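Sample intake sheet
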Amino acid sequence: MGSSIKRTLEKDNFNVYEVDIIKADGVYELKSIDVRVDGIIDFSTPDGAMKALDFAFSKGVPLVCGTTGLSDEFFKKMKNYSSKIAIFYSPNMSVGINLCFFIVDIVSKKLDWDMHIHEVHHKFKKDMPSGTALYFKKIIESNNKKASVTSSRIGDIAGEHEITFALNGEKITISHIAYNREIFANGAVIALKWIISKPAGIYSFKDIMGF
């Protein structure tokens, strides 16, 4: 993801400062970046996301976070920091999946059917279920409905999510397939370019899409 985001940013003529725990040429630690930055994109780990959040707050710059598996402590701190900086959070940076979030919200409000979420990712993905699947579940539960979740970890699949609404004799399926990781990089860069000019607060694709 880091390499994909870097390539996408450089196509838009951004200067990119890479931060990673792997100490390679041209890779920084957060504390060693002493130049003015316009914003930060974080796709790391829960620990890395917390450090990025603290750094963004200390520098007074916007943060775009797409890391999953985050703790309640992170979200509490994000809410507190959002009074001072703009923060864009989405468990999935695909524009298409965020449209699916909106659709599932509408459908789960209207139907009192059985609801199930299934997600498939590459075998190296650490969290299971995915943050995206859990977000679909959160949306459904916010409408006072229940949903079960199952997961598979196979091959090098970038991401598949299928939400099924079933009743006797019929079902509705909403599915999204990510064929490559560039779609997440593109979404993250769209979010960064959008949030740079925004006041302090917490934002998501709902705000970009006007939902």
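Comment: The chain is about 40% helix and 25% strand. The chain has a mean pLDDT of 91.
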